[in-house]
Design brief:
- By secondary structure, the protein is of the alpha+beta class.
- It has one domain.
- The protein contains one helix and four strands, in the order ββββα.
- It has a four-stranded antiparallel beta sheet with strand order 1-2-3-4.
- β1 and β2 form a beta hairpin.
- The longest helix has 17 residues.
Length: 93
C-alpha cells in the first residue's frame, strides 16, 4: 500500500549524476512502488537540485530494513565525529 505521503527537506551537499557532481538542495522521502528494486514497495529517497532541471537527481530505493540501518549508520558516524565537524558552519569553500 502506498502512503502518498512525501517528506521534503532542504539539504546542503553534493550528488553525482551522469554529468558529474552537482549541488543538492532538497531531499524527498516516500514509500511507494520502486522503479528498479525487486520489491513490492520501498523507501525511496530522491536527492535533487530542482534549479538544475530533472537530470540533477540522485534516487535510491531501499527496503524498510535497509533504510532503518542507514539511519542508524548515519547516527553512528555522526556520533563518532567531533560535534559540528560535518556542519555547513565548518565547511571550507
Amino acid at each position: 500500500m502506498c502512503t502518498y505521503l512525501t517528506a521534503k527537506t532542504e539539504i546542503a551537499g553534493s550528488g553525482k549524476g551522469p554529468k558529474g557532481y552537482f549541488p543538492l538542495t532538497q531531499a524527498m522521502v516516500y514509500v511507494d512502488h520502486p522503479q528498479h528494486a525487486p520489491y513490492e514497495h520501498t523507501v525511496n529517497i530522491d536527492f535533487l537540485n530542482p534549479a538544475q532541471g530533472p537530470s540533477a537527481r540522485v534516487a535510491v530505493e531501499l527496503t524498510e530494513e535497509a533504510a532503518l540501518d542507514l539511519v542508524e549508520a548515519i547516527r553512528e558516524a555522526l556520533a563518532s565525529a567531533p560535534p559540528g565537524l560535518a556542519s555547513a558552519r565548518t565547511a571550507q569553500v
